[in-house]
Specification:
The structure is a single chain. The protein has helices at about 45-50, 75, 95-105, 110-120, 140-150, 170-185, 195-200, 220-225, 245-250, 275-285, 300-305, and strands spanning about 5-15, 15-30, 30-35, 60-65, 65, 80, 155-160, 185-190, 205-210, 210-215, 230-235, 255-260, 260-270, 285-295. Strand 12 and strand 13 form a beta hairpin. The protein starts with a strand and ends in a 6-residue tail after the last helix. By secondary structure, the protein is of the alpha/beta class. It is elongated, with a radius of gyration of 24 Å. The chain contains 11 helices and 14 strands.
Length: about 300
């Protein structure tokens, strides 16, 4: 894939403490690139450096192989920013908010009108275009914040906690919108405290802790490499008669638990042994009713890496 942003050995200090410790990563064109990490991990600092809001002491940032300097005006034209704190003018309408922010990128006349209409429609706010923002719910304000950030058709959209404190319907609308924007070719950098959002939308993930990148990759790759296990759930009749020690004789089996008419077998990911597990059940006259594989969660990966919950 084509790299659109490349970060090499980025460093940032605050009051003598190094809070970003030489991190390096690439963001590829057309992906949804998610940052995860507990509070204080350095996610927001990294995002603020990418937007140009913060400087940095060491390292380099490239946009399409062109080195960026703080406040790079050319780069800013291709950038859209959805901040964590809602940035809107409450005493004017949704339409006027979008027009104001879009005009900062040089949009005028018919083009400004069309982009504003398009952004309102995208955010599901067409019928409220003339209403003051002060009358909007939290979810509507979040959606309008996104509309203001995309009206100029940015190549890269940075979204910092865009769904904090909103209703489920607005969150669902935003997540669907993120996927639609990617389908149209936009590159999205996304931070969140909600693990289920990353599960749903990410194409690649970086996990940070204490100013360092401790893992990166697709969610599937992270689950496989970090946890190195898979779990089979088997429901059947006659499970109570089985000696579970038989399963431990099968290569790769790490744990076996029988409860409530089901057997849970945890085994090493890289070893294919389901046929041997089924043989044991059949040989013990177990009638198999249902068999499924339980996917590991990103939450489990995160806890294994950091020893913390996401909001610590």
């Amino acid at each position: 894939m084509d790299s659109i942003i490349k970060v090499n050995n980025l460093e940032k200090s605050y009051k003598g403490n190094k809070i970003i410790k030489g991190i390096s990563f690439e963001v590829n064109k057309g992906e949804i690139f998610c940052f995860l990490g507990p509070n204080g991990a350095g996610k927001s600092t990294t995002i603020n450096i990418l937007t140009g809001a913060l400087g940095y002491e060491g390292g380099e940032i490239f946009y399409k192989d062109r080195k960026l300097e703080k406040g790079d005006k050319v780069f800013k034209k291709y950038l859209g920013i959805v901040p964590q704190d809602i940035s809107l003018y409450e005493d004017i309408s949704a339409e006027k908010n979008i027009k104001f922010f879009a005009s900062l990128y040089g949009l005028r006349g018919k083009e400004l009108q069309e982009r504003t209409r398009e952004a309102l429609e995208f955010a599901g706010l067409t019928e409220r275009a003339k209403d003051k923002v002060s009358t909007f719910s939290g979810g509507m304000k979040r959606r309008l914040n996104i509309a203001c950030a995309i009206a100029h058709h940015p190549e890269i959209l940075i979204m910092d906690e865009p769904t904090v404190g909103i209703d489920p319907q607005s969150r669902n609308h935003i997540l669907k919108s993120v996927k639609r924007m990617r389908e149209k070719g936009m590159t999205i950098i996304y931070t969140t405290h909600y693990m289920e959002e990353v599960e749903e939308i990410s194409t690649r993930i970086i996990i940070m802790d204490k100013g360092e990148i401790i893992a990166s990759g697709t969610k599937e790759k992270l689950k496989e490499e970090i946890l190195n296990s898979k779990k089979f759930l088997i429901e059947g009749e006659g499970l109570d008669k089985i000696n579970i020690e038989e399963f431990y004789n099968v290569e790769g089996v790490k744990d076996v638990l029988i409860k409530e008419g089901k057997i849970e077998i945890t085994t090493i990911s890289s070893i294919e042994n389901l046929d041997k597990l089924i043989d044991i059940l059949v040989n013990n006259s177990v009638k198999i009713i249902n068999l499924s594989r339980e996917e590991a969660s990103l939450e489990t990966v995160f806890l294994n890496l950091t020893g913390k919950t996401l909001r610590d």
